[in-house]
Amino acid sequence: MSQHDERGGRSRHHDEPARDETASVPAPEEIRRIGLANALREVTAPLHRVAERAGVISDIVRGRSSRAAYALLLRNLYAVYDALEAGLERHRDSPAVGRLARPEVYRAEALRRDLATLYGGIDVALAVPLLPAGADYVDAVIDAGAGDGVRLIGHAYTRYLGDLSGGQTVSRVLAQTLGLAPDARHLYAFDVVEPLDAYKERYRDAIDQAAHETERPDAILAEAMRAFRLNVALFWAVKDATEAPDTPPTVAAAPSSGTGAHQ
Ligand code: HEM
């Protein structure tokens, strides 16, 4: 894999055609047979390994990140979740997408609270412009919500099951290495009544059921692969932006008890 691919095609402008993700995914019947959730895990496994090692996420798990980088990541992810959750709600009555319209996992409100903490006010946070990679990701989510919106399921899988899984590790590391208080880590604090593992199983069941409500479960797989690549591109872009010598002061987050280098 070239460095360009490792970085999720980070230089691709969003006007360029997306790569054909459908070339490597199983046919609809096969997906329903093995279960869409299993198929998603299988086809995205190599991309998961890339994502874990990408840019700011890799820095976070190694304890090398900064509060400013984390804040900028959340600023961009906020716009992504906002678009995703608007799309899921718009398709709430759809038999396929409606199964994933689950407000108990929605993260936009949680992120608003994190951003207010990290930037010292939500208005300050939202005044920070999106990175081009963040804007690309938002555009892709809006595009996935067009028509029957079924491709939104690929985005929901990638972010929510990620936050419910590895996100829990990320949250612990952020507390240990950057001294981030719970007030800056709502992203990973899920208010679900059952243990997270049990909830994740139900989420996976809902994904499996959705595959029987659409003729295009293969499009969901392709979109999840695209979502992983968009995340990878964003993780590198955040790292690059916060390590650049001319980092604008707006991305330097408000002071706190954190130990990050960019305070
Ligand atoms: C350093 C960061 C990460 C770590 C340590 C990590 C770790 C894990 C682990 C241990 C699981 C398996 C949980 C289980 O089987 O119940 C998992 C699942 C998952 N992760 Fe990550 N992850 C990381 C980053 C990411 C990123 C950046 C994304 C996407 C943007 C992501 C998306 C997912 C998804 C979608 C699943 C669900 C897999 C499935 O059950 O189908 N992860 N992660």
Automatic annotation (TrEMBL):
The keyword Metal-binding applies. Residues 1-27, 244-263 are annotated as: Disordered. Pfam families: Heme_oxygenase. GO terms for molecular function: heme binding; heme oxygenase (decyclizing) activity; metal ion binding. GO terms for biological process: heme catabolic process; heme oxidation; response to oxidative stress. Residues 1-22 have a biased composition (Basic and acidic residues). Gene3D superfamilies: Heme oxygenase-like. It comes from the Bacteria. Keywords: Heme, Iron, Metal-binding. This is Heme oxygenase 1. InterPro entries: Haem_Oase, Haem_Oase-like, Haem_Oase-like_multi-hlx. It comes from Rhodoplanes serenus.
